[in-house]
Design brief:
single chain, alpha+beta, 8-stranded mixed beta sheet, 5 helices, 31% helix, binds coenzyme A
């Protein structure tokens, strides 16, 4: 069986969002009914993986955000100034059921991390919101660390990204 190939693009009106099903109702509902409103209001951007038949195989959302020093583990926060710390938030990530378990979730996460950390603005870390313990395990698999007080939110610092992903 040949490996499917995908292209990653900004979500646009030409994409058919209604046929996307990840098996997570809140994520599917958000993607079908609310993501475009958030995009119009510049609250988020959404990127989609498109298969060879132009179907949406996966998506993620990316927004600017911040964390406060007390959110971070003490060994990190004590080296930082006492200001809101700028981060990029990947609020949602989902892969269509047809494509799960084939590496696409990891590829989308990698794309988001690179996009978020290779920008012209300061981004201390990428944070993600895991919907449950299973999703948390997925992010930990890629080096994300849970926030001490809210373990379903996880982060990876831009410094860690450089050391892990720059090879
Ligand atoms: C979670 C989700 C995005 C993962 O996408 P996927 O395409 O199925 O995952 P991949 O095939 O890319 O897996 C990549 C790696 O993560 C590992 N992995 C997958 N799920 C994992 C989990 N829950 N815990 C630990 N590792 C996990 C895989 O074993 C694989 O490891 P490898 O690179 O060593 O082979 C997808 O299953 C999904 O959309 N689920 C429903 C919505 C959801 O839970 N979203 C999560 C954000 S809240």
């Amino acid at each position: 069986m040949s490996t499917p190939t995908y292209s990653i693009a900004l979500l646009s009106n030409s994409h058919d969002r209604k046929s996307f099903h990840s098996g997570s109702e809140p994520l599917d509902d958000y993607f079908a009914t609310r993501v475009t409103q958030d995009i119009r209001r510049s609250l988020t951007k959404s990127f989609v993986a498109i298969d060879e038949l132009d179907r949406i195989a996966g998506f993620y959302t990316l927004s600017a955000s911040h964390v406060v020093l007390s959110d971070l583990p003490p060994e990190m926060s004590r080296k930082l100034p006492k200001i809101p710390i700028p981060v990029a938030r990947m609020g949602r990530l989902a892969v269509d059921e047809k494509y799960q378990g084939q590496g696409l979730g990891g590829a989308l996460l990698f794309d988001a991390i690179i996009r978020a950390t290779q920008t012209d603005i300061g981004v201390y870390a990428v944070i993600v919101d895991a919907k449950d313990e299973l999703a948390k395990g997925f992010y930990e698999h890629f080096g994300f660390i849970p926030f001490p007080e809210s373990p379903l939110t996880l982060f990876i610092s831009t410094r860690q990204v450089r050391s892990i992903y720059s090879g």
